[in-house]
Design brief:
- There is one protein chain.
- With 314 residues, the chain is α/β, with parallel strands linked by helices.
- The protein is 42% helix and 11% strand.
- The chain contains twelve helices and eight strands.
- The chain has an eight-stranded parallel beta barrel, surrounded by seven helices.
- Helix 4 links the parallel strand 4 and strand 5.
- The protein is globular.
- It starts with 7 loop residues before the first strand and ends in a 16-residue tail after the last helix.
């Protein structure tokens, strides 16, 4: 099992879809090359940004297989398959499939319809899923804003420490820095804590984060890599300015709709058309997309965005 610590940006890809809403796995090889070109070191597939909870098991397997084919022979690029959902048996099946494909890792979030009543029950859920992919690193995905499950992650680490051998860390998408720091220091840094709030990356770096997973790394990875470099060079004013730039860009984009549809639409502007979103999310209409594009051009956001992939027309 490969459990080396991650140092860099993992994108949470949008799931490419055709105009009719079906999965467009044929775009995934170009998506992989695009991320590599922009120095992104991995992909967290079928997660929130990828509309994973709106995909069938077979669709997730199709997507996972396409990504697995892309990274054959590429030991540097790490593909995480998000397997969370409301049916634990489905999660177990997907985790086993991820191991069959030899992906880098699996990630699982709490069931969110019938929710675990305490952290012990949550740990038992994690144990069952992790056991179906024992050779892969297992990451819990902490995102209480969507699951409604908000146990302190330090309590979960204490529960899983002796019972889940392949438990590797947490994708932490929440703003509780006290809990996050406690997890970073637990058992002398035994577990990896991947930061999941792009707009707070600088704050996470300041308390010890090294790896991050996020949707905006799809399209403005250069801004964040410049931020990380500025932080490492103790150029804090520059780092703050870059973080603020990312925040302001997000605020501008979200004038035109909710986060995932707007960000997925933005990908068209940088040369990678990932298609529509699925209900209950709503796509931007043509008028709204045109207004967004005009505002993007007025603010010169394309100049700070991830570069288009040379030699490929999407």
């Amino acid at each position: 099992m490969d459990n080396q610590k991650i140092n860099g940006l993992i994108a949470a890809p949008f799931t490419p879809m055709k105009a009719d809403g079906s999965v467009n796995a044929d775009l995934i090889p170009d998506y992989y090359k695009f991320l590599k070109y922009n120095k992104v070191i991995g992909a967290f597939i079928c997660g929130s940004t990828g509309e994973g909870l709106s995909l069938t098991i077979e669709e997730k397997k199709l997507i996972a297989e396409a990504w697995a084919n892309c990274v054959k022979g590429d030991k540097e690029f790490k593909v995480f398959l998000f397997v969370g959902g409301t049916c634990l048996a489905d999660c177990v099946e997907l985790a086993a499939y991820a191991q069959q494909l030899n992906l880098y890792a699996v990630s699982f979030t709490s069931p969110f319809y019938f929710r675990p009543g305490n952290v012990t029950a949550l740990a038992e859920c994690c144990k069952e899923v992790a056991a179906s992919a024992p050779d892969l690193p297992f990451y819990y995905y902490h995102i209480p804003s969507l699951t409604g499950v908000n146990f302190p992650m330090i309590d979960l680490l204490k529960k899983v420490n002796e019972i889940i051998p392949n438990f590797t860390g947490v994708k932490y998408t929440y703003e509780d820095f006290k809990d996050f720091m406690s997890c970073l220091h637990f058992r002398h840094g035994k577990y990896e804590m991947l930061w999941g709030r792009d707009a707070n990356l600088l704050a996470a770096l300041s308390v010890g984060a090294h790896g991050a997973v996020g949707s905006t790394y799809n399209y403005i990875a250069p801004v964040y890599y410049d931020l990380i470099q500025a932080f490492n060079n103790h150029e804090l004013e520059k780092a703050r300015a870059l973080q603020q730039k990312s925040i302001e860009m997000g605020q501008v984009l979200e004038k035109y709709g909710t986060s995932i549809p707007v960000r997925k639409a933005y990908m068209k502007l940088i040369g990678l058309d990932c298609g529509p979103v699925r209900l209950p999310l709503r796509n931007l209409d043509e008028e709204t997309f045109t207004l967004m594009k005009k505002n993007v051009e007025q603010n010169d956001y394309l100049s700070i965005s991830s570069g288009s992939l040379p030699g490929i027309t999407i």
